Amino acid sequence: MKLPSSTFTAVLATVGLLFATSVVRAVPSFARQMNMQCTACHTDYPILNDFGRQFKLSGYTMSTGQSSLPPISFMLEPTYSSTQRGQPGGAGPGFNDNNNFALNQASIFYAGRLFGDLAGADPTALANKFGVFIQATYDGVGKAWHWDNAEVRFADRGTVAGRDVSYGVYANNNPTLQDPWNSTPVWSFPFNGSALAPTPAGAPLIAGGTDDAQKVGGVGTYAMIANSVYLDVGAYRTLGTQFQKRMGVDPATETEIPSFAPYWRVALQRQVGGGTWEVGAFGMAADTYPQSDHTVGKDHYVDVGFDSQYQCSIDQHDVTAMLSYIYEDQKLGASQVGGYSTNASNSLWALKGTVDYLYDKTYGGAVKYFIADGTRDPVLYQSGAAGGSLNGSPLSDGLIMEVNYLPFAKGGGPAFWPKSSVKFLLQYTVYDRFNGARTNYDGTGRNARDNNTLFLEAWILF
């Protein structure tokens, strides 16, 4: 498959190649660019507050012009994972059955104004209207480097019929990466989790269910009108196999999107009860080759999502509540012919609700309920396979509970590399049902509760 010829995809590829080997989350380069602490843009990072959403809508270009440091940041995620029952054969290559220490990720970011301070502090300068968020990551479990979330934007402001409008165009490699709220898939809770614990089989396409993150290239345009109405339209397609390999991504057996798949987003934002309330919808439709098999025809996916977020800050208390529902219609005629699914058509849905709380910008906690279910399909959900679903059901539900400690959120890091931060988190995931059942869900005697996971992490940003 040849690399897409789209101009915007070419821009994305060029910038990715430029920085992925030499070089959103909350990253200190943004804070240094603004000469502010991370708490200016975030509550319990990476959750954005009102100002943080404005910063993102500006294309990461807002600056006070007081920092001469390049827009580079670093991240380390040393972790510990323990499941209620060990995984025979190891939780991952080179790891024990249970109770594993790992470096989940080590990342380098080039994030902020694309051209740094070369154009000076003037916000009207053309060069200062281009922003970038590019992350290159070392996977400590897979033992390999790869490009991670990447986005390039042009952003500006204007007026239409007397109303203020923030608008821009973007190119990125992950649907919903550009969204300013934390209720859509890329930036939703949990923001970190164990890479050495089993996870449910069923997830919608737009939520990474076909492992499309960082394997696609997309381009789109957005506008926020009067800080109230948000509109976003774009399109995504799978990147070329050779490009994926150069970026450290394995294209084997991927669900390939051969032509641009439309993406859309609309949201309304209002001030309600001393806080900010958002309600919106988003979706994507894609023709796909199952497992990159061009001999059996194409499947067709349609995802439609609804989301809402309410956020308020009162004195030392920050509260964010997030809700998301995604319904997916799957036409799987090609997968059925190729032996990748039992049925010619399926449906899948996923619901999740999260409440996140932060006290004094230092002590936090969050609780999330999640459930996903849909049509039974023994082949698609790997009936009888280790980690698969014995009855072909994607039904999984449970709770994720987390407590956080952010000791430097208000003060920043050392003088030689200011605005650094660290978050210590303790997370526990509890499953009620896993891949269709509470007990013996995969035929090996493993029960849903055996996948309950204790996860500890030091999330270090500097």
Question: What do these coordinates show?
Answer:
By secondary structure, the chain is mainly beta. It has a single domain (7-461), classed as Porin (Beta Barrel), CATH 2.40.160. Helix content is 9%, strand content 43%. The protein has five helices and 16 strands. It has helices at 7-20, 28-34, 50-57, 241-246, 333-338, and strands spanning 72-83, 100-113, 130-139, 144-160, 163-172, 216-225, 229-238, 261-272, 275-288, 299-314, 317-331, 345-359, 363-374, 396-405, 421-433, 453-461. A 16-stranded antiparallel beta barrel has the order 1-2-3-4-5-6-7-8-9-10-11-12-13-14-15-16. Residues 1-24 have low confidence and may be disordered.
Topology readout:
Blueprint: H1 7-20, H2 28-34, H3 50-57, E1 72-83, E2 100-113, E3 130-139, E4 144-160, E5 163-172, E6 216-225, E7 229-238, H4 241-246, E8 261-272, E9 275-288, E10 299-314, E11 317-331, H5 333-338, E12 345-359, E13 363-374, E14 396-405, E15 421-433, E16 453-461
Antiparallel strand pairs: 1-2, 1-16, 2-3, 3-4, 4-5, 5-6, 6-7, 7-8, 8-9, 9-10, 10-11, 11-12, 12-13, 13-14, 14-15, 15-16
